[in-house]
Amino acid sequence: MDKPEVTVRFYAALRARAGSDEILCRAANVKDVIRHLKSSFGTDFNRVLNSCHIFLNEENIVFMRGVSTRLKEGDTLHILPPTGGG
Amino acid sequence: MATKFKGYMGNMLKVNLSTGEVSEFDVTDRDRELYIGNKSLATKILMDNQKAGIDPLSPEAMLIVNTGPLTGSNAPCTSRFNVSAKSPLTGAIGASNCGGDFGVQLKRCGYDGIVITGKADKPVYIDITEKGAEIKDASHLWGLDTEKTQEALSPKTGKLVIGPAGENLVKYACLISQERAAGRCGLGAVAGSKNLKALQAKGSKKIEAADPEGFKKAVKNWIDMLKSHPTTGETLPKYGTANLVNPINLSNALPTANFSRGRYEDAEMISGETLAEKYLVKNMGCLSCPIRCGRVVEVDGKQVKGPEFETLGLFGSNILNNDLTLINKWNRQMDLLGLDTISCGNSIGFAIELTQKGLLKSDLKFGEFGWMEQLLEDIAHRRGIGNDIAEGSRAMARKYGGEEFAINARGLEVACYDPRSSVGMGLGYAVSNRGGCHINAGYMIFMERTGPITMDPYSPASKAAWTVFQQNIFEAVSASGNCIFTTYAIMHKLLHKINKRGLLSKIISKVLGVSGLAMDHTAMILPWGMPMNMPVMIPHSLVIGKLTGMKMTLGKFLQAGERGYNIERMFNVREGAAQDTLPGRFMDEKLDPKRPPLRAMAKMLPGYYKVRGWDATGVPKKKKLAKLGIGISASK
């Protein structure tokens, strides 16, 4: 059976590095998505990736099951580089 | 020179606008060492020299414009100066930090600050040179907006001006210097109440360093650190503070429909990314700033300052507006009128909900904005419903009801973070001396949501201790004349490289969550427990030492912040403005059905008081004041 298709949205400086606001990918869990991103984009993208917060739909995966968090069809992963301001 | 320390000019001006008298105001070196400068020292001056219980818009009220030792020193992000007074909006301490050019020019004239009292019998401005200050007629400036006022003053001077909102005593009128604002607490109204339209300064005195070579080296390292940091070197320069719209929205903390929700479906349309892609002409920075978080956008064919995060939220999601073109335009209009965009936007959101609930008769509506431009003018000129909104949300609630959804703390409209998704931020808003200010609150959302290592944003564990730490360090940074954004680099760039999904990140997060016990006692070991500097993370103390010649350590620096926070609290105690609470909406209404509202978190408050060394009512204990060298009592 195919893995679910999810949307991966990029924010701030990651958009320029990805050359896109979002991509679609098939992945069973967050770890699959990270693996896909690391193989798809350059080292500059990967350098920022570790410092990003990742939200699954509306929840930070830090408060879920981390990279083992399972995905389902239609989910959106949001990948956010370090923020600042106020 | 009236000081043994370098970095300071050693003189302060005192101007009485009632009598026209200009004199010197004495500050001791002991107070410079204890309070450093800017807002902390200004509060000390207010405590010692202003009578308790005065009307903040009366002639006897003091308005203090003050700098820190770093202001104008060429250390990074040090154009910062401060305006302080008793706030007419809150009745509590009012302090507002600004990055315009006035503070630097004031120091070049040979003055660290200016204390203004009295009331002129006609509009005036204060002209400061190396020879002193002169009070000059400003009748020709009265009624002008903040840009035209600055244009009408002498070229190449540092300026600080009010617009029509300040003249008309709008309770959240601000002061503007260049395009930067001393925005919060209504200090523009204090200037307006004195018929003081503007200040200008121009001088050529040099700010000397005690150890020029050491200072230069420390500054270079600091600039390198800021430029290579992912937040201050990339996110802020590229996207400005507007970068926060999407992350705060995802965190369920973006005020939406007067803080009734934490997510806005159109957040992307008002985000920093959209601003950068569709509207940004270039970025800009204050003097000596390598970060350059300011935005330049085009409004009506003119390049002007773009909106900050707070303005995007409070004039975007909070009133259900997804049109960034409108926000750019209103932001420009408010800068010209001299209105604080946070209090103004928040108060308008409240007025819309009052109307929606039938408590106020008006045409205001979420999602439709044909009325906005006229309303902003009416607020600044106190016409019609604008006259009510000009009083702020607390006063409006007293007149029309709806206190539970008047989103202010201590009378100051809350900034653009819903604390129900960041409970430490809620604690901070409640105890913040100047009211619902995210900075004075301690900005715990960084520790709970947006920083490189985060704590559980819904748990009260260790939040009291971390809130105290954050508040103290922000206070010290502000006192020194430095921008608060330099503190992003406290989370060293290496911490940003830690995999947030990895084991190490989880361990650090857990450690932070149980660190309260150790952090609770940090203040006890200050300053002797930290007899060193830590330039890799907090370069401020090292740089202050090299500049001034003070024996500054990290411990002394943090304790100066603690001292500043405590004297602000004592000001509020004296003025009867020390009640620490939050609006009913935050306390009793759920934002997330799975999470309790903030009343369940009220147990953080006693813990916070304990860490602070305050009694159960939030008043600093004598022992704490004695340790900090604050020789005053609440009854004074």
Which stretches of chain B of 5+ consecutive residues score pLDDT under 50?
none
User: Considering DSSP H and I runs of 4 or more, what fraction of the residues of chain B is helical?
Assistant: 25-40%
**How much helicity do the residues of chain A have?**
25-40%
Q: List the chains of the largest interface with their residue counts.
A: A-B, 28 and 47 residues
Computed structural class of chain B: alpha+beta
- Looking at CATH, the homologous superfamily of chain A is Beta-grasp domain
Task: Enumerate the strands of the largest sheet of chain B in spatial order, edge to edge or round the barrel.
Answer: 2-1-6-3-4-5
What is the CATH class name of the largest domain in chain B?
A: Mainly Alpha
Total domain count of chain B: 3
* CATH superfamily label of the largest domain in chain B: Aldehyde Ferredoxin Oxidoreductase Protein, subunit A, domain 3
CATH topology descriptor of chain A: Ubiquitin-like (UB roll)
The chain-level mean pLDDT of chain A equals 92
If you compute it from the alpha carbons, what radius of gyration of chain B comes out, rounded to the nearest whole angstrom? 23 Å
Largest sheet of chain B, if any?
6 strands, mixed
Percent strand of chain A: 25-35%
What's the gist of this structure?
The complex is a heterodimer of chains A (86) and B (636). Chain A has 86 residues and is α+β, with helices and mostly antiparallel strands.
Give your account of this protein's structure.
The complex is a heterodimer of chains A (86) and B (636). Chain A has 86 residues and is of the alpha+beta class. Chain A has helices spanning 13-18, 30-40, 43-49; strands at residues 5-10, 22-26, 53-56, 59-60, 76-80. Chain B is an alpha+beta fold and 636 residues long. Chain B folds into three domains: 12-201, 4-Layer Sandwich (Aldehyde Ferredoxin Oxidoreductase,  A, domain 1), CATH 3.60.9; 249-413, Aldehyde Ferredoxin Oxidoreductase Protein, subunit A, domain 2 (Orthogonal Bundle), CATH 1.10.569; 421-628, Aldehyde Ferredoxin Oxidoreductase Protein, subunit A, domain 3. The two termini of chain B are 32 Å apart.
